[in-house]
């Protein structure tokens, strides 16, 4: 019997995951990728002896990665070595700094030093978060989101109120803690979900469990080691890869996708097409209008996660005391938040994030040097990211780092590259230059997300951060698996 053919468009985390699971299920899988390497937003590059991960830099939820590789009879250690970071990260406040310890008992001591009774409250908070993580991961995110009936599960229904779906995380944290630094630290993980804490369901305190209990890790050699492992695994499953191929159209006949066309006049015949590239781009640019599931008005109403202004910087000097992850919460959050979510504009005085993988892994930079990854969250769709704007914000970051470390990195730069809205659009055809996809608000959860199955083309499916279960690396791995199993159940 000849295997049915699947063409997966895009080799990011979700595309790699979908391709591998489909191949395992017996499909003949071909991945077509625009760039010269797998990874999508998680690509990497090397320059002047420095190695830079281009996108994701946090390794949380290690159990999801273990489950992924375990599904193929492998382990993460077959592909990369994990290092647990301690401290997990550092936070710079207006009046000082705080290292967040990996050890839970040490974290309780820290909390108690800030607020009497906070250590005991943390135990109660984490017990709830552990329940949400267990039920949320096992019962919610592994659903294709095609029908409310998927969620008619006894444990889900029994624990509906315990899951806190209808309360917001800001108010939930406020019930337990009053100290502003504790509250901001506990609200930080949900920023990965792309919305303000007051607009994010309290269900997502499960992210606090991921942070505090499961820990912050780093794959030695960089985050791209995950991509390399997944790529190798996919090849072992029989997946075929075609790089440097730009898709210009999906061939649809009588409501059925027949294949995809590339800019170099290649045609890949398919029994099923999986869109693992930007969902909006595939809908609006690769399909004729009669085959689009969603209107332009629909897309314009979506609440997007923030975009990013990123700098990749190599310096010829070690920065004393620098941690692997640093959060600069040293200016008021309210104004920057409003400039992201309420009145979109370039931030006046931004919070920012700094990663220095060379602190943990000396293979990431030449001896005596440091590789630095700066990220400023900005409003989605914020255009005008010219060199003048990029230089302006880089100076702000350098001044703030100088104030905290005593080192002016501008005197030691040997490599620098920036990345923002226009780069996301050019490289990934990203809707509104999105970096993370849709915000995980209540009205954009599960069945309320763009469907992973086309409503107009019977054998076209989607995976990745604009569909279920949502933004982030672990959700992307899950998204690929969910879509692969849905395809296998419907199309064989």
Could you characterize the architecture of this molecule?
The protein has 492 residues and is of the alpha/beta class. Among the domains are: 170 residues, FAD/NAD(P)-binding domain (3-Layer(bba) Sandwich); 112 residues, no CATH class. The protein contains 15 helices and 19 strands. The strands form 5 sheets. It has a 7-stranded mixed sheet with strand order 7-6-15-16-17-14-18. Strand 6 and strand 7 form a beta hairpin. Helix 1 runs parallel beside helix 15, helix 3 packs across helix 4 and helix 4 crosses helix 8. The protein is globular. The relative contact order is 0.19.
SSE topology sketch:
Elements: E1 5-9, H1 13-24, E2 28-32, E3 44-47, E4 50-53, H2 62-70, E5 82-84, E6 89-93, E7 96-100, H3 104-114, H4 118-140, H5 154-158, H6 169-176, H7 180-187, H8 206-214, E8 217-219, H9 224-236, E9 240-242, E10 247-253, E11 256-262, E12 267-269, E13 272-275, H10 279-285, H11 296-300, E14 307-315, E15 325-328, H12 333-342, E16 352-355, E17 370-378, H13 387-405, E18 413-419, H14 421-428, E19 460-462, H15 473-491
Parallel strand pairs: 1-2, 1-13, 2-9, 6-15, 13-19
Antiparallel strand pairs: 3-4, 5-8, 6-7, 10-11, 11-12, 14-17, 14-18, 15-16, 16-17
Helix pairs in contact: 1-9, 1-15, 3-4, 4-8
Overall mean pLDDT: 96
Structural class comes to alpha/beta
Strand content range: 15-25%
Radius of gyration: 22 Å
How does the overall form come out from the CA principal axes? globular
Could you list the spans in which at least 5 consecutive residues all have pLDDT below 50?
Answer: none
Helix content: 25-40%
The number of helical runs is 15
- Please identify which CATH superfamily of one domain we are dealing with: FAD/NAD(P)-binding domain
Q: Distance N terminus to C terminus?
A: 12 Å
* CATH architectural name of one domain: 3-Layer(bba) Sandwich
CATH fold call of one domain: FAD/NAD(P)-binding domain
Strand order of the largest sheet: 7-6-15-16-17-14-18
What is the β-strand count? 19
CATH hierarchy class name of one domain: Alpha Beta
